[in-house]
Amino acid sequence: MLQSRKDLFVATFERFSESDLETYFARFIKLLPFRLLKPAIEVNPQIQRLAGFAELYELLRSDFTCWRNPELYPYLNYLNCPDSRLVAESVRALRIHTGLDSLSLEAAQCRSVWRLRAGNHRVFRVDDRCVTAIDDILVDTGNPSTPSIYRPYPNLFDDLRVDLYHWHGRSCRAGEAEGYIEQAFRLIDRYSPSLKENVCTVLNTIALMPYDAELARSFTLRNFYIGGAFVSIDDPISLSEQIIHEYYHQCIWPWWLIEKPDDLPGDHVRVVSPVTGRARPLNTMIQALLIYRSLIDFYEWVGATFNTDEVGLSAAEGRLVALKRNLEPLVSLLSDATRQMRATREIIEFLAHTSIGSDQQYAG
């Protein structure tokens, strides 16, 4: 179960949820694939007649480990589509991703790449005549508690229909990815062992991308790929920031599936970010406030802990200045935008003023 005085999601959840974290994980998160399957049946009741669906239904209802497989969530989302062919294809894919069926050439043809998590974690490339395993695509961290980590690879996430993923640019040489990831997770662990444990609980897949200043540095796909994060290869401090940043998004989006503030608007309500100058959904910018507060604390710790540039300290100092400079304008922006949203405004006020403690407060 998540805990950490350094974890602002935990603090926010404990302040505003009607549940406790243990109950939330037991009744919602661990049953999340099954919970997403039920509304799909209401939208497309005919899926109950598809071959293999009944067995899939029983597995998702009874297996409390499936929630940790991000590959299930795209297909659970597709089950809500009106396209009967896509729905049938998604049921077949779910059976493969849960280990109920093996990946045959016939079944594999609908995708160019398959990332399989059930059983032995393998990645396969598909062409007209064969299914071929892709070697050396997974980073071996030597630590089974860390997420599965993919090196950049062409078309690796084409099945998610995501344009932001990129594999071009600076290549990731043998051993380089391991070094970056190991240092980043050691840094998070040194900052807060319990936060690092939380990150490894929530994030089950991290896809590395070559750094490109012109492209998105990191992102998630909200509830479409739960437990997955995309980050750019960079110095350990920057990589740590990206991991922490996307961890928070992957905590909040599933929570808001069932327990969002009553007056929280959808993506159609947008505000202009004081940081980027681009219009962004208000709900996303509220999460940004939580992330800013957390990262300011992280970067203050970095500045107080290191006195050399071995881990990118000079860039970290500039990042801290930028975060602090933009914090007050962000709070003002969100406060103005939510004047008529009492429940949402309470969260903003909490995030703006709550203090961040230390892990030692959990001792004993």
Show the helix and strand layout:
Elements: H1 8-16, H2 21-27, H3 32-43, H4 53-62, H5 72-78, H6 84-97, H7 105-108, E1 113-116, E2 122-126, E3 131-133, E4 148-150, H8 176-191, H9 193-202, E5 205-209, E6 218-219, E7 228-232, H10 236-259, E8 270-272, E9 279-281, H11 282-305, H12 313-337, H13 342-353
Parallel strand pairs: 4-5, 5-7
Antiparallel strand pairs: 1-2, 2-3, 6-7, 8-9
Give structural notes.
This protein has 364 residues and is α/β, with parallel strands linked by helices. It has a domain at 260-355. It has helices spanning 8-16, 21-27, 32-43, 53-62, 72-78, 84-97, 105-108, 176-191, 193-202, 236-259, 282-305, 313-337, 342-353, and strands at 113-116, 122-126, 131-133, 148-150, 205-209, 218-219, 228-232, 270-272, 279-281. The protein has a four-stranded mixed β-sheet, covered by helices on one side. The protein is globular, with a radius of gyration of 21 Å. The mean pLDDT is 91.
Keywords, separated by commas or semicolons:
364 residues; 4-stranded mixed sheet; alpha/beta; 3-stranded antiparallel sheet
Structure at a glance:
The chain is of the alpha/beta class and 364 residues long. It has a domain at 260-355.
Identify the overall geometry.
globular
Order of helices and strands: HHHHHHHEEEEHHEEEHEEHHH
**Count of beta strands:** 9
Overall mean confidence score, pLDDT:
91
Question: Roughly how much helix do the residues carry, as a percent range?
Answer: 40-55%
Extract low-pLDDT stretches: none
| Tally of separate helices | 13
Gap from first CA to last CA: 16 Å
From the alpha-carbon coordinates, what is the Rg to the nearest angstrom? 21 Å
Largest sheet: 4 strands, mixed
Q: Please report which band the strand proportion falls in: under 5%, 5-15%, 15-25%, 25-35%, 35-45% or over 45%.
A: 5-15%
Structural class: alpha/beta
Strand line-up across the major sheet: 4-5-7-6
